[in-house]
Amino acid sequence: MLSEELLTMGDFPESWKWVRDLTEGGQGYTFVVQRSDGSDEKHYVLKRLKNPQREGYYEREVQACMTLEHPNVLKLLEHGPTPKGKPYLITEYCAQGSLTNQTTFNDVREGLRRFYGIVAGVSHAHSQKQPIYHLDLKPENIYLKGDVPVVGDFGICFIENGEVSLTSDGPRGSIYYCAPELRGPKISGSPALGAADVYSLGKVLYWLFTNQVYDGHEDDYANVPSRRLVRLFPSEPAFDFVDYLIERTVQKEPSKRIANAQELYHELLAVLNRIDAGGRPLDLRLPLRCAFCGIGTYKPLRDLPSNEQRLEFAARIKTSRPVDIYNEMRGDAAHKFGLGDGGAYNVGPLILMCQFCGNTQVFRLDLVPNAERNWKP
Ligand SMILES: Nc1ncnc2c1ncn2[C@@H]1O[C@H](COP(=O)(O)OP(=O)(O)O)[C@@H](O)[C@H]1O
Ligand SMILES: [Mg+2]
User: Fold this and answer.
1) CA gyration radius, the chain
2) Which terminus of the chain is more exposed, N or C, with fewer CB under 10 A?
3) Which of 98, 138, 148, 151 to mutate to test the pocket of ligand 1 (most atoms within 8 A of CB)?
4) Contact (Cβ atoms closer than 8 angstroms) between residue 26 and residue 175
5) Structure confidence by residue, pLDDT tens digits, 47-89
6) DSSP letter for each residue of 187-202
7) What local confidence, expressed as pLDDT, does residue 344 receive?
8) pLDDT tens profile 223-275
9) Residues 6+ apart with CB under 8 A from 206
10) Number of DSSP helices (H) and strands (E) in the chain, helices first
11) CB < 8 Å & 24+ apart, contacts of 184-191
């Protein structure tokens, strides 16, 4: 047994006592430990390097953890050599383990709030004077303290100091999460590392709602509708906002991605605020349930069903509402909004009407910020 071996070798810092082993990661031996002097009963984590040739990385990990101070970044307590001169570090213990222990989120807000904490931690790292890029973001390296996600394992991070650049021979993050430009064996040019972390964060976001690694081609996310989360959760159109974030992060071409974690943080905040305010995606490819009757869905006025179809629909759901009133309202709305005016309204407005009750929503697309993004015909 690994830990017994280490203990009998006496290669454990004296001030700490072994409690149990943690899942073995790629580069370190990790253990739950307690203080030997019993000054507190709390659990901590001791991590030791497996491969002594990786000491340069270990030093970066220490430096990153010492520099960063943020509720969503793993706290370093102590570091030093073991009795046999091997480096170790002690961090806080996150009792709920890594994200891999949690079940998927079905609630769009809850999942996005969890993601928000993760992005906040990475954004803190990216916004240092000497930015710190994690480069190994994946569910296994994000831990949970209660509900709070904590970014850990800066084991292969890169700290930008203007002198060194990323080399081709260093260790790489998981193939499933690592940005394509940083995958194997050679790295060409000097890739933008902020955008590389953003890529991995997009994959983590997909994982939060599915417990699956996104397995499609990156460019399919935007272009293959069946891949989108909104298809997996048809009753919650707000997943369209999540899809938008994945689409802007899981891109093969780095320049098409959101550039860094700070920008992702702001985009995410805007999305969360919009969802909290009851905002909805304006995407005509999705069924948009009527905000008034809750029965029908909105259709652009131009392809509203015929009266016969509407009567048939009404009969199908066995309602006694006077459908004629709705027809009248529909006629009224069409008149008010100048429908049939042809060329006069080249840019707008977009008129959506509930195919059942006639509730009408009018959008001046010339006023919609980023109409091309917020409105999908
Ligand atoms: N502070 C911690 N709290 C809880 N679990 C942890 C902590 N640190 C590590 N672990 C667990 O141990 C595993 C390996 O640790 P990690 O720091 O990722 O090492 P490696 O560099 O070997 O991947 C993690 O995936 C996680 O399950
Ligand atoms: Mg790890």
Assistant:
1) 27
2) N
3) 98
4) no
5) 887 776 777 778 888 888 889 999 999 999 999 888 888 888 9
6) --S---HHHHHHHHHH
7) 31
8) 787 888 988 888 888 999 999 999 999 999 999 999 999 999 999 999 999 99
9) 212, 213, 214, 229, 246, 250
10) 11, 14
11) 190/165, 190/166, 191/166, 191/254
Say how many Å lie between the CA of residue 267 and the centre of ligand 2. 27
The vertex-57 CA angle with 51 and 62, nearest 5°, equals 115
Look at residue 254 and give its three-state secondary structure.
helix
Q: Does the C-beta of 47 come closer than 6 Å to ligand 1?
A: yes
Indicate the CATH number for domain 99-276: 1.10.510.10
Place of tokens 């983590």: 204
pTM of the entire predicted model = 0.83
Tokens of 302: 């131009």
CATH class, range 4-92: alpha beta
pLDDT at 3: 59
Measured from the Cβ of residue 239, the count of other Cβ atoms closer than 10 Å reads: 22
Tokens 């996150």 correspond to 94
Task: Give, as one character, the DSSP assignment of residue 184.
Answer: S
* Domain parsing of the chain, residue ranges: 4-92, 99-276, 298-374
State whether the beta carbon of 89 lies less than 6 angstroms from ligand 1.
Answer: no
4-92 and 99-276 in the same fold: no
Ordered mean pLDDT values, 10 residues apiece, the chain (377 residues) = 57 88 76 92 89 75 90 94 85 94 92 98 95 94 96 86 61 84 79 93 96 87 83 87 94 94 96 91 80 88 60 56 52 51 43 90 70 60
Pocket of ligand 1 contains residue 155 by CB under 6 Å: yes
Instruction: Give the per-residue pLDDT at 303.
Output: 54
CA of 65 to the centre of ligand 1 (A): 14
